[in-house]
Structures
1.
Amino acid sequence: MMAEAQVGSRDQLQDSEKNSKTETTPQYQDTDAKMSSPTETERCIESLIAVFQKYAGRDGNRNSLSKTEFLTFMNTELAAFTKNQKDPGVLDRMMKKLDTNCDGQLDFQEFLNLVGGLAVACHDSFTRSQK
Ligand SMILES: [Ca+2]
């Protein structure tokens, strides 16, 4: 949630520059110059937020993925992973496991657990293949 707030406030920061203290204006300009070209990490965070919002916004609550939205996300964005699963119940079980507060929806934190888990799995297989 913090990352979302920081990333989202980038444009607001520039808009509210006139309101900031005059003696710190040069520092604000430096900061803005850096912020106008986000780092790769910042771009990754923005991408995660954008992709979450894209699928979460399809029906109902815009801040969470329903089961249908989750399946659409998995079959679209992670089709290579999904197609490789021989067990047809794997996505159902993933949804249940990720939905830690059991409300039938994946909020952004729960979505990040999915992305984080997949990233760890990819990293593990990558480091194994380097040995
Ligand atoms: Ca949930």
Note: The radius of gyration is 19 Å.
2.
Amino acid sequence: MRMICLSVQFLAQYKGVRPLSLAGHVGFDSLPDQLVNKSICQGFCFNILCIGETGIGKSTLMDTLFNTNFENFESSHFEPQVKLRAQTYDLHESNVRLRLTVVNTVGFGDQMNKQESYQPVVDYIDRQFESFLQEELKIKRSLHNYHDSRVHACLYFISPSGHSLKSLDLVTMKKLDSKVNIIPVIAKADTISKSELHKFKIKIMSELVSNGVQIYQFPLDDETVAKVNTAMNGHLPFAVVGSTEEVSVGNKMVKARQYPWGVVQVENESHCDFVKLREMLICINMEDLREQTHTHHYELYRRCKLEEMGFQDTDPECKPVSLQQTYEAKRQEFLVELQKREDEMRQMFVQRVKLKESELKEDERELQSRFEQLKRLHADEKSALEEKKRLLDEDQSSFGKRRAAAQLLQAQSLTANGKKDKDRKNLNSNFFTDW
Ligand SMILES: Nc1nc2c(ncn2[C@@H]2O[C@H](COP(=O)(O)OP(=O)(O)O)[C@@H](O)[C@H]2O)c(=O)[nH]1
Ligand SMILES: *[C@@H]1O[C@H](CO)[C@@H](O)[C@H](O)[C@H]1NC(C)=O
Ligand SMILES: *[C@@H]1O[C@H](CO)[C@@H](O)[C@H](O)[C@H]1NC(C)=O
Ligand SMILES: [Mg+2]
């Protein structure tokens, strides 16, 4: 409805456009119905992120809000790090189909280091924005059947200490307030007395303001809900009680928590703000939460991301630049840079080669000198050996001579001995014969 009003105003402002009256019914007054029918046909999607420490009542509140039983995994207090668990459900009410995703922070606040608690949450939200951006930037987009996982509402569960916000709460909300619609709620509000609750609410709001944390404000631009939204903005943060237990009150069964001293009725506005939260979150402002997510938080993410990549709508002289021009400029810049790098690399290569060459030359020189040295050594050894050989030859020849002389001498002595033997034999025989 709002959109159509705006576009009619827009046309009227446009110069050269004349208002005309129609002579009869044409039928474009069915445009709103067409829009409604199309939306119903497409179905809706809504994603809620629940942030709060383990056991604060996140799962119970979700079950109570949607009047169903989501599959809940009870988590321990000993998770080494925060994990985000997203679960998607298809819900039907009359002929409206809602694809609801509930994201739970498992192990939030159980770490020693605060940064370890909020960083995974920030990363999760950014990842959902990033995948939407990637889909938008594709050449072949399919945004009509894209499952939009961007977080539309973040319920931040404040523990009912009655005291003040924890520093983890402030730090986390501060990190998230430009990325998501934060709706703070005081959990387990049945554990805090009425007068304390009032003071606690005021304290929380003043702490949020003094720390510059922007929480989601219910919108006032649509007259039909401006009044109720203004009133509800004054009730923030909602003090909620969750329960799936049914207790009979009067002659009806109502969702309640039963205590020895009485019954807390979840859906009784004089007991807690549960109904206010459900009205605001689901019945009145669900579409605004979706819209704010797209037009504010996603837009901011997209702008920062594209600027980071070097895209800009205007040049430094405020002249408009098209995507094409930016692309060309970037490409040129890149090519210049590439050329520079290439030149640098080439120079470095040449330098390296030179260095290596001189090293090699040095090595060669060294090798040469070692070779020369060895050669000299070898020659010395050779001449020493030759000297030895000469001496040996001399020895050998003198030995030969001496042997020849010795043999001659031997031969002479043999012939001389032969004569003596003969003489001796003769002598012997004479002796015997004489005897
Ligand atoms: N007193 C009180 N207890 C609650 C409330 N909501 C949940 N609880 C109890 O708190 C415990 C943890 O709740 P659960 O929803 O599992 O917490 P989660 O870890 O944050 O999902 C359960 O025993 C619930 O019955 C509440 O509003 N008030
Ligand atoms: C919208 O849907 C309703 C009910 O399904 C139907 O009666 C009506 O003619 C539709 N209107 C348009 C403009 O499609
Ligand atoms: C809501 O609670 C108040 C106070 O306990 C009680 O008087 C009133 O009857 C309750 N309303 C309903 C609808 O049960
Ligand atoms: Mg849980």
Note: The beta strands are 44-51, 83-93, 96-106, 153-158, 182-186, 238-239, 246-249, 252-259, 262-265.
